[in-house]
Every structure is written in structure tokens, then in C-alpha cells.
Write a structure and sequence with these properties.
alpha/beta, Aspartate Aminotransferase, domain 2, 2 domains, seven-stranded mixed β-sheet, four-stranded antiparallel β-sheet, 13 helices, 11 strands, 42% helix, binds pyridoxal-5'-phosphate
């Protein structure tokens, strides 16, 4: 391929991407099922004998792929907990993609190592976590939970005289693992991957917001790991860290926090009360691809004791002190890896503390507007809207299911379903930099209209 062909191809990709994003507001927020069917059909053949011209590959991708996407990059997608991509972070992701650096070490890419060091330092500052903590940029909060809990496993067993990286878990002292009844499913998956088991956890009861009840706490003995949550995936509720962390530490336990999105409240003076006490934990898992609004895949593990993280993740030099420059391979489950630090650095650099705080506060305010509007429309809000999450029912489970279906078909916005405290509910997560108050009002109108249509009201 000659250089000009490559230039044209990359510019074509950029143009197609820009018009895709430009057109998102005027299309349905849901995937077009017919477009998905056509995409599946077009992809149905076997591995081709001969290749296709590069520009045709791109044309295929845009023609079949773009219409089959969900509009999660848009401003009215409220499913799961889904951030968009900040323009600076998306553009940085493209440029770094063209660099094609391998971020496993400071030798394979000194530039990525530099961006990653700064991204981690700024993340700790943004989230109010200790400056000296170790960190790892991983694929998401699931792997961040994994990374943190591997460090926890290392440290609590080391204190019990056991070297888990060398000896494995066979014959090791038993670790007591404590979680809340509303712990995120990924923590169970991670416990399974770490050999700590899904079913042998001690489960603490939770209240109507999904928060661990800080009363009648059991006596636990070390080695122990206590998993708390900052931001329940449905309600946005926070476990009471100011009581639970001192209780756990008194028993010699390691305290881990799954804070996939909740910890971002720390950037805002208005919201910081929600995360009070969480900085006293020993490890924190969060996502950057949710509320920081960077492209996938971007999660962050921060561990107070950087050495515990290093010992748990080191590839072969576990018993050597870390070098002067940080090699990511010694701190993460990955070896070869992409430029996560660039995506995150660009987001933090483009927002600054002021921009990040504004975005977080705006999304929380928008969640409250949504909740108030839905209440006025006759729906019932099931959670205290303390953060960016709204859990809402429209009467009985059947009606709620019909409203969700209607809203998804209408396509003005996209909201998913959940079961909250035994009831079917719609969950609305306002997590995008791109969401304006006008988007909230349009979505509110669409949801209210769906509710009226299902109830048989005439406006
Ligand atoms: C989203 C989420 C996770 C999993 O994060 P991924 O980025 O999907 O791996 C874990 N815990 C909570 C509370 C979450 O909201």
C-alpha cells in the first residue's frame, strides 16, 4: 500500500466516524433489529480465500456495522452504567492506536509508560486516594476487582505466613471473605477466578438502598478480606464506610472497595460526603470507561500498599525491588497491552478538576430531574436518588415491563430493566458527558408518553 492510500483510508475512517457521531441524535437509541439481521447475514460466510481492498473493508464496516450499533455514544443512552467518549479521549485513542505501542514496559514504550504514570497519579488525586498507592490500568472494573483482590489475597496470606504466589492455595490458611448481599456480580466472578470461591463468602445483610447494614456485625478473624461497595449498580447507594472500615481493620481484614462509578463523587465538593471514609480502605476498583467517559476498555485498580500489588502481579521478579521506572507488566494481569493511559490522561487533561466535577454534578442533577419528572407522571421512584441512578416502577411488574419495552421501541432514549428489592423496575443511569438538560426533558417526555400509552390514558 502506498502512503497516500493509507492517508486516504485513515481520513475516510475519521470522516465516517465523525458523521456517525453527528447523526446519532437523530436516530433511534436502540439497535435496529433489521440492521442487526443484515449484518449477521453479511458476516455469515467462511473465511475468504482472497482478501478485500482496504477501503472496501471500511465501507463494509460502516455500511453494515454502523446502523446495527446501539447509540451508547449518544446523549440519551441510559442503559447499564454507560459513559460516552469525551472528544479529546476518543481522538487520543485514535492517535495512540496509530502509534501501536506495546504498553507492557517502559522499554517497549517509554512514551506510554510516561502517560500511564501521570494518568495514575492524576486518578489518585481526582479520587482522593493516597499519593503513594500503587495502581494498574486494566480492562474494566471486573479486572480491577481481580487485581485488587489478588493483592489482598497476597497480603492477608503473607501476614499468616503463607506465600500464595509460590505455594498456591492448596493447604493455605483459610481466608474469610465478607461481602454485602448487594455486591456486584463481578465480585463473585473474581472470587471464583482467585480460588476464593463464590459460595463460601460471609454475606452481610443490606438495607432498602442496597447498603450493608452497619449493625450486628459478625466477629471475623484474619486472614480476612471485606468487600465494600461505593455506588450500587441499581440504586447508586454507598455502604457506610465510616463504620465498616474501622470494624474490618480492627479484625485485621483487608478492605476492598468496588467503586466502578461511585468513587467519582469524590471530585465534587457537593457530593464528596457520599464517599466519606472510603479513602481509608486498602484497595479500590473503578472504571474509566463509565463515568470518566473514555473509550472501552478502561478500568483502574488502586492499591494502598504498592508492594502488595507488585508481589501479586510480578511476572518473575517478585523478590526484587521494583526498578526506578514502573513496568506495567509488574503491576497488572496483562503483559502486552494497549495505551489505556493515553485515553485516561486525555480525558483528565481536557476536563481538569473543574470540568470533571461539573460533569459528575450535572449527571447527578439530571438524575434528580428525571426522578422528579417521573414522579409527576405518576411513576414510583424506588431509590434515594443520591447519585446518577434512578430506579423506577410504573405500577405492577407487568406494566413496568411493558413501559420499558415501549421506551426501547420508541428509541428517543434507551433504558434497561432490573429487579430491585423483588420488584421489576426500569433503571436509568445518567453517565454521559454529552447529556444535556434538553436530552433529559426529551427522554422524560418519551418515558411519560410510554407510561400513558400503556395505561391507556390519553394526553
Ligand atoms: C460496571 C460495574 C462493574 C464491572 O465493571 P466492568 O467495567 O464492566 O468490568 C463492577 N462493579 C460495579 C459496581 C459496576 O457498576
Amino acid at each position: 500500500m502506498v502512503a497516500t492510500d493509507r492517508l486516504i483510508l485513515l481520513q475516510d475512517a475519521a470522516n465516517r466516524a465523525a458523521s456517525y457521531l453527528h447523526n446519532l441524535p437523530s436516530r433511534s437509541a436502540a439497535a435496529d433489529t433489521e440492521a442487526v439481521r443484515q449484518l449477521r447475514g453479511a458476516l455469515d460466510g467462511d473465511m475468504p480465500a482472497a482478501g478485500m481492498a482496504d477501503n472496501d473493508v471500511l465501507e463494509f464496516l460502516d455500511h453494515y456495522g454502523s446502523p446495527a450499533t446501539v447509540a451508547s455514544a449518544g446523549s440519551r443512552y441510559f442503559g447499564f452504567v454507560t459513559g460516552g467518549s469525551l472528544p479529546a479521549s476518543l481522538a487520543a485513542n485514535w492517535l495512540a492506536g496509530s502509534w501501536d505501542q506495546n504498553g507492557f514496559s517502559s522499554v517497549s514504550s517509554p512514551a506510554l509508560a510516561a502517560f500511564e504514570d501521570t494518568a495514575l497519579r492524576w486518578l489518585k488525586q481526582a479520587l482522593g486516594l493516597p499519593e503513594t498507592a500503587g495502581g494498574a490500568l486494566v480492562t474494566g472494573a471486573t479486572l480491577a476487582n481481580f487485581t485488587c483482590l489478588a493483592a489482598a489475597r497476597h497480603q492477608v496470606l503473607k501476614q499468616a505466613g503463607w506465600d500464595v504466589e509460590r505455594q498456591g492455595l492448596f493447604g493455605a490458611p483459610e481466608i474469610t471473605v465478607v461481602v454485602g448481599a448487594e455486591v456486584h456480580a463481578t465480585v463473585y466472578k473474581v472470587l471464583a477466578m482467585l480460588g476464593l470461591g463464590r459460595d463460601r463468602v460471609v454475606k452481610l445483610p443490606t438495607d432498602e438502598q442496597g447498603r450493608i447494614r452497619a449493625e450486628n456485625l459478625p466477629d471475623i478473624k484474619s486472614p480476612a478480606i471485606v468487600c465494600l461497595q461505593a455506588g450500587n449498580v441499581n440504586s447508586g447507594g454507598f455502604d457506610p464506610a465510616t463504620t465498616l472500615i474501622p470494624w474490618a481493620h480492627k479484625a485485621g481484614a483487608w478492605v476492598h472497595v468496588d467503586a466502578a462509578f461511585g468513587l467519582w463523587a469524590a471530585i465534587s465538593d457537593e457530593l464528596a460526603g457520599l464517599v466519606e471514609g472510603f479513602a481509608d480502605a486498602d484497595s479500590w476498583a473503578t472504571d474509566a470507561h463509565k463515568w470518566l467517559n473514555v473509550p472501552y476498555d478502561n478500568g483502574v485498580a488502586i492499591v494502598r500498599d504498592a508492594d502488595a500489588l507488585h508481589q501479586a502481579m510480578a511476572i518473575n521478579a517478585a523478590y526484587l525491588p521494583p526498578g526506578a521506572t514502573r513496568d506495567a507488566i509488574e503491576y497488572t494481569p496483562d503483559s502486552s497491552r494497549r495505551a489505556r493511559g493515553v485515553d485516561i490522561w486525555a480525558a483528565l487533561q481536557s476536563l481538569g478538576r473543574a470540568g470533571l466535577s461539573e460533569m459528575i454534578e450535572r449527571n447527578c442533577r439530571q438524575a434528580r430531574i428525571m426522578a422528579d419528572g417521573l414522579r409527576q407522571a405518576g411513576a414510583t421512584i424506588l431509590n434515594d436518588v443520591v447519585l446518577n441512578q434512578v430506579v423506577v416502577t410504573f405500577g405492577n411488574d407487568e406494566t413496568t415491563g411493558q413501559v420499558i419495552k415501549h421506551v426501547q421501541e420508541d428509541g428517543t432514549c434507551w433504558c434497561g430493566g432490573t429487579v430491585w428489592q423483588g420488584r421489576a423496575a426500569m433503571r436509568i443511569s445518567v453517565s454521559s458527558w454529552a447529556t444535556t438538560d434538553d436530552d433529559i426533558n426529551q427522554s422524560l417526555d418519551a418515558i411519560s408518553a410510554a407510561f400513558q400509552a400503556i395505561r391507556g390514558d390519553r394526553p
